[in-house]
Amino acid sequence: MIESPLLAELGGYIAGEWVDADTGDTFDVINPADGDCLARVPGMGEGQVARAVEAAHDAYGRSVSAEERCRWLSEIAAALAAHTTELARIITLEHGKPLREGAAEVEYSAGFFSFFAENLHRLEAEVLAGRPHGLQWKVHHRPAGVAALITPWNFPLAMLAKKLAAALAAGCGIVTKPASQTPLTCIALYGLMHRIGVPAGRVNLVLGKAGPIGKVFCTHPAVRLISFTGSTDVGKVLASQAAPHLKRMALELGGNAPFIVFDDAPIETAVDALIANKFRAGGQTCVCTNRVYVHERIAEPFAAAVVDRTRRLEVGDGMLPGTDIGPLIDRNGFDKVAEHVSDAMRRGAVRLAGDDPPRPACDWGAFYPPTVLVGVTPEMLVCREETFGPVVAIAAFAGEAEAIEQANATPYGLAAYLFTRDPVRAERLVRRLRFGHVGLNTGSGPTPEAPFGGMKASGYGREGGIEGLLEFCETQVVAGS
Ligand code: ADP
Questions:
Q1: Which residue in 50, 110, 228, 452 has a CA-CA distance of 20 to 30 Å to 412?
Q2: CA–CA separation, 128 and 134 (whole Å)
Q3: Atom of ligand 1 nearest to the CA of 213
């Protein structure tokens, strides 16, 4: 069991109170590294979720000044910074990622609260230039209403911070449902907001089975907006459930990121970027490189450098100091990675690093060795689907047209990476990449200051930047004399 000063309460949070499930139902949170039961938390039903929505609706009805919202945001950012070590420990225990990545996640998350605190003035009403029809036209950004936030397990804090910071800044009432694998970091954040004095009902937390909770979010009349990060399949389910109720949605869904390296690229920079980008969170991020396309003239030395770096990575419990890659989240994750690798090898790919690990007997201990495959082709699963694991899949290309065609040959459009020293080529290719985020000579993912989100099957809506703030607002125009 986890002992933490940030987890004195282990419940849901409705109308400013910590609550158990009405039914007494609970579920266990398991450390994916060693199977330890970290905590038993309530599993709530539809009635309780509806109460949380109603509490959020009441709070949303009580308007709150920009100064007050700014204070919450700044104090949350400060509290995250002050508790980085403990929050990182909770993240690592429930997710499995190395402790230093947990700490980086806390810092990144705090950045969203700071950014929106510093940019709240961007929501001030604006009077339009000129006087169309002889009237004054004033544009307001009103809070959208109750925002329901659904988050995944791969960044237990950051995926929530992006949504929550923007929703608080906008003045929404909020109900959060974190992933059941990793609710503890979210509970800890709610504990910090409770201490800071975010008023009762403004932020609510529900825990439990996703289906019934999602149904309440999609159908309850008080919910105006659903912000979801997760798989494309679940995103489609939510979009169709919410469609008859005309709720607004922001969907950050799956990716299948290409990483394109031209023969004029700085190879060492590209290899460094690939290793950092690919193996973050054990390859379980939506912006992780999934397919590597390398110009045929440099394909061999590039692969050799990647293999050399990959073989040096340490796999183990994220709590141990030397660990670079923790366990996969569970056995399903393991099975998917193993299937992708065996499918690729059956179809002719060659494995230059990694081997076949034993299948875990249960839902924890899914350690998968970092793997490098070359000779990857488009029909292989590693190219068609998001692997979500520590596998580098490399294919060689002959020219620009082929590289761009392969990169775009996916229904997804979240992140892409391009390495070339030629700025004219970069400009030409970036324009044609159908991805919402492009790293040019960098493997860097999103930042709080910039809008991030997908094209095509990777969803719609943006998080971060002013665009991410406006997702939680409704525009109201007042025309007057
Ligand atoms: P992942 O593959 O990352 O687990 P999911 O899309 O399955 O992605 O889950 C992302 C989040 O969506 C989690 O919080 C999960 O509990 C939730 N979720 C899963 N299915 C549903 C659903 N039918 N309705 C609402 N939320 C769901």
A1: 110
A2: 12
A3: 25
| Residue 278 pLDDT greater than 90, yes or no | yes
Active site residue 474: no
Is the pLDDT assigned to residue 109 strictly greater than 90?
yes
Q: Which of 105, 252, 386, 471 is catalytic?
A: 252
- Per-residue pLDDT band at 481 (split at 50, 70, 90): confident
How many angstroms separate the CA atoms of 12 and 10, rounded?
Answer: 7
Consecutive H or E run containing 359:
none
- One DSSP character per residue, 378-410 reads TTSHHHHS---SSEEEEEEESSHHHHHHHHH-S
Q: Report CA(182)–ligand 1 centroid distance (Å).
A: 12
pLDDT digits (tens, 9 = 90+) for 319-360: 999 999 999 999 999 999 999 999 999 999 999 999 999 999
pTM strictly above 0.90: yes
Separation between Cα atoms, residue 227 and residue 473, nearest integer Å: 13
Which atom of ligand 1 approaches the CA of 235 most closely?
6
- Separation between Cα atoms, residue 96 and residue 98, nearest integer Å: 7
* Separation of alpha carbons 184 and 178, rounded Å: 9
Spatial separation of the C-alpha atoms in residues 42 and 257, rounded to whole Å:
36
| Look-up of token digits 């910071």 | 165
Q: Phi, psi at residue 473, to the nearest 5°?
A: -120, 155
Dist. CA 241–CA 210, nearest whole Å: 13
Half-sphere exposure of 50 (CA within 13 A, CB side): 10
Report CA(234)–ligand 1 centroid distance (Å).
Answer: 6
Residues in a beta bridge with 250:
227
Residue listed under structure tokens 């949504």: 163
Residue nearest to atom 15 of ligand 1 (CA): 179
